[in-house]
Design brief:
Length: 277
């Protein structure tokens, strides 16, 4: 009986190079042990117990997260090879969607097997990893306990902005908070926001919301003093004026805002560290 040879993808190695090392372990490209799609080039990315299968077929690149309890049925994310910089687009989706999803799935299993407290313990390990990366970039990090049972860290950026990173009960992901000038978010937001094909004008007639949605059309005004973003099973968040009493008829990059970003994975945050100090 002959065994079909599964050829390597051209995408896997450059994709692995765009994903962060964890605890000193980089992603490695290995042969895939399974043919997910007949006739397709397939490679497996592995890192410390995690695995992603990368499949190339008919002008598409698909990523399947390896789940030991079930065989792959549908890809977790897909990009077309004809799109602009498909490897970067795929890496952004893996960081923003696939790996945080795996963290949430693991947290749900942990709650059933070991309870909510273990989820906090596991999340604190991710928090510590990001915290040490922040320290390596010059941040002074203070640990904080939350009254709801969560834990977190806080630090002040060079522009005076106050950041916080939080492990919330039974969440599985990390939540990032911010208070400072809105311009201090501009380098971070491209990592968190989904891509858009066309610019959609804001429907709220506020100088504050237009200032943000003109720059980032993925943001949607909720009111004259708040914008939001987010899709199901993706990063989400909001940016708002600190008080609804503040005037909304002027805006600039120094305008003080409060923001919160949810469903963030540790891998995404490690890539974002240079934009958080």
């Amino acid at each position: 009986m002959s065994t079909a040879v599964i050829t390597h993808t051209t995408t896997a190695a450059p994709l692995a190079a765009l994903l962060p090392a964890r605890r000193g372990v980089a992603w490695a490209v290995k042969p895939s042990p399974q043919g997910i799609r007949a006739g397709a080039a397939t490679s497996r990315l592995v890192q410390d117990g995690r695995a992603l299968d990368v499949v190339e077929l008919d002008g598409r690149v698909e990523v399947y997260a390896d789940r030991a309890d079930r065989a792959p049925v549908a890809p977790d994310v897909v990009v077309t090879e004809s799109g602009p910089d498909p490897v970067a687009a795929l890496a952004a989706l893996v960081l923003r969607v696939v790996l945080p999803r795996l963290e949430r799935e693991a947290a749900r299993d942990t709650v059933v097997a070991h309870g909510r407290e273990q989820v906090i313990i596991d999340g604190a390990q991710h928090l510590n990893e990001v915290g040490y990366a922040l320290i390596d970039h010059g941040a002074h990090v203070d640990p904080i306990a939350r009254p709801d049972g969560g834990v977190g860290i806080e630090w002040t950026a060079d522009n005076g902005a106050e950041w916080g990173l939080w492990v919330l009960p039974a969440n599985g992901n990390l939540t990032l908070s911010y208070e400072g000038p809105v311009g201090g978010l501009y380098a971070l937001l491209p990592l968190l926001l989904p891509t858009v094909d066309v610019h959609r004008p804001a429907f709220t007639g506020s100088a504050f919301t237009r200032h943000l949605t003109d720059r980032f059309p993925q943001l949607h005004p909720l009111s004259a003093d708040e914008v939001e973003f987010g899709r199901r099973d993706d990063a989400s968040g909001y940016i708002a004026l600190p008080s609804s009493d503040e005037p909304t008829d002027y805006a600039d990059d120094d305008r003080q805002v409060a923001a919160s970003f949810r469903r963030l994975g540790a891998d995404l945050l490690l890539t974002a560290v240079p934009h958080l100090v």
